[in-house]
Amino acid sequence: MIAVVDAGLGNLRSVAKALEATGTLQPVRITSDPNVVRDAARVVVPGQGAFGDCASALGPEAPLGRAIVEHIRGGKPYLGICLGLQVLFEESEEAPGHPGLGVFRGRVKRLPAGLRDENDRRLKVPHIGWARVAVRATHPVLDVPSEDNWFYFVHSFHAQPLDESLIAAVAAFGSMPLTAAIARENVVAVQYHPEKSQAAGLELLRQFVGWKC
Q: For the chain, does the N or the C end have fewer beta carbons within 10 angstroms?
C-alpha cells in the first residue's frame, strides 16, 4: 500500500489521483493514521503552505512525524513533495523555533530577492511556474527523458543541506541554482510538484511506485 500522508496541508487528492494514474496495482490511501504510515510499503508526503504548520503536524514530537521517521529508518521508499522535502531538515527561516524532522542536517532558506533572469527581468518570490530541472547524477526515480525535464514549482524557500551531496537535482533561479531534489538511499524528495507537471511528473511518479531501493 502507498500511504499519502494527510497533515492538513492540501493537495492530497491530486497527488493520490496522479499516483493511481501511473497504473500501479498498489492501493493508494490518504491517511493521518501513524500506524498506517508505519506499515505502508511506500510513503508520499505532499504539502503546500507554511513550514510552521507542517512542522506542527509532522515534526519530531508529533505522532505522524515519528511514524515517518520510523518508515524511513526501516528502509522503505519515501517521496517528499514541496513541504515534504523541507520538513526532512532541521529548521526553516520561515518558522524559527519550529523544528523539522532532522532526518538530514541543514536548513531551509528563503529564495533571494532581486535576482534577474537571462532577459534581465526581475524574478519574483514566490517562484511560481515551470523550470527545467537538471539531475546531477543518475537516479531511478528522478531521471526522466531530457526533453520532458520541466516541472512546476510553487515556493518561496528551498533546502540547503549541510552535505551538498544530498542535492540530486537543481533548477536555475537567475544566477542561483536552487535545490530541486534531494536523494539518499530510500529517500527521494522534490521541491516541485509532479502531480502538476503533466507527462514528466507522471513519469517520475511511475518510477517511484516501481522503485526497489
A: N
**Average model confidence (pLDDT) across the chain:** 94
As beta bridge partners, residue 213 has: none
Task: Show the DSSP H helices in the chain as ranges.
Answer: 12-20, 34-39, 51-58, 63-73, 83-86, 198-209
pTM listed for this prediction? 0.96
Query: What is the end-to-end Cα distance of the chain in Å, rounded?
Result: 16
Task: Judge whether 193 counts as a catalytic residue.
Answer: yes
Active site residue 195: yes
Instruction: Kindly name the residue from 71, 155, 158, 193 that is annotated as catalytic.
Output: 193
Cα-flanking dihedrals φ and ψ of residue 163, to 5°? -95, 105
Q: Please confirm whether the linkage preceding 34 is cis (ω < 30° from 0).
A: no
Residue 20: predicted pLDDT? 97
Contact between 18 and 195 (Cβ < 8 Å): yes
Output the pLDDT for position 117: 83
Question: Catalytic residue among 82, 94, 127, 203, which?
Answer: 82
Mean pLDDT of all residues in 21-44: 97
For residues 58 and 66, is the Cβ–Cβ distance under 8 A? no
Report the distance separating Cα 112 and Cα 11, nearest Å.
Answer: 26
Longest dimension (CA), the chain: 51
Tell me whether residue 54 is one of the annotated catalytic residues.
no
Q: Would you say 179 and 170 are in contact if contact means Cβ atoms under 8 Å apart?
A: yes
Enumerate domains of the chain plus CATH numbers: 2-209 (3.40.50.880)
Task: Please pick, among 91, 94, 195, 203, the residue that the annotation labels catalytic.
Answer: 195
- Dihedral angle over CA of 187, 183, 104, 12, nearest 10: -50
